[in-house]
Amino acid sequence: MTVLQVVLAGAGRAGANHALHLAEHVPAASIAGVVDSDSDSARALAEQLGCAAHGSLEEAIERTPFDAVVIATPTFTHRDLAVTAAAAGKHVFCEKPMAITERECDEMAEAAERAGVVLQVGFMRRFQPEFVAARRRIEAGEIGDPMVIKSLTRGPGLPPPWAWDLKTSNGMLAEVNSHDFDCVRWLMGCEITRVYAETANLKGAQRGVDVADFYDNAVVTLRFASGAVGTIDGTCPADYGYDARVEIVGTAGLLQIGEVRGEALLMVQDRETGAVSPVHRTWPERFEAGYRAQMRAFAAAALSGGAPPVTAADGRAAVHAVRAANRSWQEGRPITLDQVLV
Amino acid sequence: MTVLQVVLAGAGRAGANHALHLAEHVPAASIAGVVDSDSDSARALAEQLGCAAHGSLEEAIERTPFDAVVIATPTFTHRDLAVTAAAAGKHVFCEKPMAITERECDEMAEAAERAGVVLQVGFMRRFQPEFVAARRRIEAGEIGDPMVIKSLTRGPGLPPPWAWDLKTSNGMLAEVNSHDFDCVRWLMGCEITRVYAETANLKGAQRGVDVADFYDNAVVTLRFASGAVGTIDGTCPADYGYDARVEIVGTAGLLQIGEVRGEALLMVQDRETGAVSPVHRTWPERFEAGYRAQMRAFAAAALSGGAPPVTAADGRAAVHAVRAANRSWQEGRPITLDQVLV
Amino acid sequence: MTVLQVVLAGAGRAGANHALHLAEHVPAASIAGVVDSDSDSARALAEQLGCAAHGSLEEAIERTPFDAVVIATPTFTHRDLAVTAAAAGKHVFCEKPMAITERECDEMAEAAERAGVVLQVGFMRRFQPEFVAARRRIEAGEIGDPMVIKSLTRGPGLPPPWAWDLKTSNGMLAEVNSHDFDCVRWLMGCEITRVYAETANLKGAQRGVDVADFYDNAVVTLRFASGAVGTIDGTCPADYGYDARVEIVGTAGLLQIGEVRGEALLMVQDRETGAVSPVHRTWPERFEAGYRAQMRAFAAAALSGGAPPVTAADGRAAVHAVRAANRSWQEGRPITLDQVLV
Amino acid sequence: MTVLQVVLAGAGRAGANHALHLAEHVPAASIAGVVDSDSDSARALAEQLGCAAHGSLEEAIERTPFDAVVIATPTFTHRDLAVTAAAAGKHVFCEKPMAITERECDEMAEAAERAGVVLQVGFMRRFQPEFVAARRRIEAGEIGDPMVIKSLTRGPGLPPPWAWDLKTSNGMLAEVNSHDFDCVRWLMGCEITRVYAETANLKGAQRGVDVADFYDNAVVTLRFASGAVGTIDGTCPADYGYDARVEIVGTAGLLQIGEVRGEALLMVQDRETGAVSPVHRTWPERFEAGYRAQMRAFAAAALSGGAPPVTAADGRAAVHAVRAANRSWQEGRPITLDQVLV
Q1: How far apart are the CA of B8 and the nearest CA of chain C, in angstroms?
Q2: What is the C-alpha separation between B294 and D310, in angstroms, rounded?
């Protein structure tokens, strides 16, 4: 069996999660090296994986033969890493958000196209069984024509400082809710045409986060090319658990994806408290199956040279919608998505 | 509108529950008096209801004009009260268990028949919406032929001392699980033919209850005339809540009635604890709709002189099955139900 | 016991629902007459209730002694009926939406105040057990400070033609989602300050409804005085059932009210179909407990002359928010609620 | 990394399921060959796995170097295969039921002990996350002392003919409910002391199965050494899905494991039908995580030579309890488990 040699860029939590799935569950891939500018993190993860550690992607390219890179670094570094990797003929898997601006996304897409390498964006919900089943049902017409879609993501944990600043990220709507912006497009089978957002800095304010434009709660209305409407909402940190759910109302029915309860356990100790069920606690646990299948799909696409299941155009569309939503609350007006956002 | 004048025998918790439903929700009935040998209880409830209190049913018969009696006293008093009431031409609603022995049930049935009065037994689950819907579905053949039925009742609260003694009650299987023995007959549409029971004194032992033949946990296997099989189980006290559920496996499907969760609320405060939903806390709350509809049905039957929806034969069948189950664990063998149990 | 004599104005579905609860479950009230300009409807319901039918409220005032009126007619008639009733010294219970404009609401409130009568608005969710429990928990601080609230109402049934026209109603956001606008204020304990709405005519378009400004789907973002944000969404007709749910994210947890599943039944017939549970089918069934408790509360307030639990100010606030939301989608911009909407 | 070379005995459905998990998800193991007396099945699976096919275990031993065997053949062949493998120094993973009789179990255990090889029995529920979590909670005392345990397994699919005959299997209680007999011991932390069973041939009768002692429904009462009681029930075929659930009532609470609903999806198309959720359709899907973790644990134990997490004594205890339950219904009496069953 041909095995895809992968270098992992980014030894943080997302990187370690990809590494785990690649190492333990993707026979068609093998980890050839870890890159992290923080050399301690890189070395620790590399040691655990039994591979080499590098201080930069360039170093890895120079010293190690490999086929593909998995980018799991902060958003503002994605463009440079992807362009460098593609230029060196490496296939690229890039975590969401794809980049900071639409222009960066375009540069990444062009680099990949020029080099003839696969460029896949990390929207793992498209591989999560209940999301896959839901999309199949919608496409089969089981709920008729979608009229309203509502998608939410909430998660525990204060985001890293670079994700607070709209210049190094696009804030919570990018870091947390990119998945929602992608999912609604994918499930509705059509594009978002207008967004309006309200945001609030509530928990951050309590915790003393005082960054311009920081927000930790957002609600967004959506209008779609089909005439349908929708909402996205996000809260981070939401210490009660990791929560990702979607519901779609169609002309012929309702479909709900996901639920607050996680494991199939229920315990009651006393009448006053009530019945208690475990919740999803973290995103690697909530979307374990999706993360695993996503890496398998990337390996398959890279090995065959086929089209990736999530494209640069998908990554760009989410960046575009997120930036429009940010502009909306900043300017206090709805934003139409065909406008150029500079 | 003709109104049924009702005297309530028994001013305890079950009596007060019937009184509430009669007074507040059954326009066709009116409470004419309360009887309780504990004259304080009787007086307190009577005052609340705005009616007369009596120390005995005989006294009530002598002093107050009324049409019907609702018996909610300890089981060992049911026979005498029912026979006295019937002899005086009063319709009789009798709480479960109907009586201590099959012979007592027969005497009650004969007294009612002689007097031409209605005698209804308090199996309120037959009036509870989800049980009614389930039965309709089974009868409509929606799960095919029933093969296995499992019914359970568990509730908080140490039972009163008279309910511990197999001579003044038939123990937990009678006081708590009578409903299950009735429900399985009603839902399966056929008779129980054999029972085997295992019982245990576990929580009572911890709490120092030391009565011969006392048990607070029981599991029972059932065989039905149709060839189907089943189980009943009971635990009391089960301090985690009031829990009553049934499930039926048929040749063409599964049907579940009831669930641990009560009110449609869910709360998560932190990831460690999980998602919490209220549970059913008490039987008057769990079966509120059933208790209400049951009293309406009794008033209707008594006013029209029609057949009651739950008959003396139903009450007797449950007593018979409970006594067979008790004999089973006492003798360590399965008991066939056509045997005479003296 | 003093009994409140009630005249029912409006013999349609909402009126019949109130009549049922008053007649069967509110001992403190009695129905003295039915008013409906459609004399057949009035006569049919009056006959069923055993009371007089009148062609107009004025006629009822002239011919029948009574204490209070329950208004369940189309929205555009509320103001006149309420003012007439108050002027005649009758207590007023008025279905939601309270009226078409804020000015009408003010006139109703002034008429009631002048006459010293109770004026209660029909937001029955405030009486529904799970909503009451949720509010108590929020007030007790169980989820910390509310950050995001999402409320939805969807229901089957094409609305009556007068409810399509923004001149005789305020459309779906008024007729269906008034409850949401009231609930979010009540649960959050603060006022809405800004709204933005997107609407769509999707099912109506399929069914040939061609009224200017008609919409059958809406999503709305909310901003609150506390700094919190939220959404409301509505779909009508949503033929899959009657669906009303709220969720609130606080700094210390998540609270969900309501669920799609109704009765506690589950059936599986085959693996392909899956497990099936009944849903809430209609609003009278979904909020039966709330409707009942609401009528009891109105009777109590009217008999005691006390303050009603839902005031004219509450009714007006919902009308104001709905009208702001309508203006929002009509003008394509967010609307701040302190603006005068003429 | 040292890799455990595994030969798979049995190319049926259970074997293919083990093969899948070994090949795709257990990096520490590799499949060295497939054995099946049906050489077509063996060859097809071997081809798919890219390994050699053998007509017998002896042939595999002779021709292929390997370390361990996974036995997934009909029950009546387990003893011979396990003894042969152990004698050749191979570690043994044996599907449940371990064997037909306690004596066979003893012979297998002795052979493994003599050879110093690992012998692990296939109770994968002990590796399934929600079962593992439940056991941890019980051991931590979260529900106090267990008083009642109820375990059920129901599944679709008519069993193969050899599983109907009590001589080549021990019937449904062995083939389907072995897992329950093991689980209750494991979760309760003590031994079953007495069983009583009722069985019925209902669906088989409809389908023309006419084998002596065949049954497709069973209910069993259990008594435990601790004084606790319980039930096990089984139905096969239960075409509505694959259903495995446990509930435990303790002195301080209730714990439920598993639920009928599988994937986190809900769909409502119309009010008449209700809300539909997917169910667990097959055992490989229901216990996917358990099967995977079980194979990892076997590989780890075999490679380290450590004690297996599920022992021959566990396998024997389940066989003993099942045979006691079969004798119970055959003789119409409860059976105490310290009796020798020949």
Answers
A1: 20
A2: 53
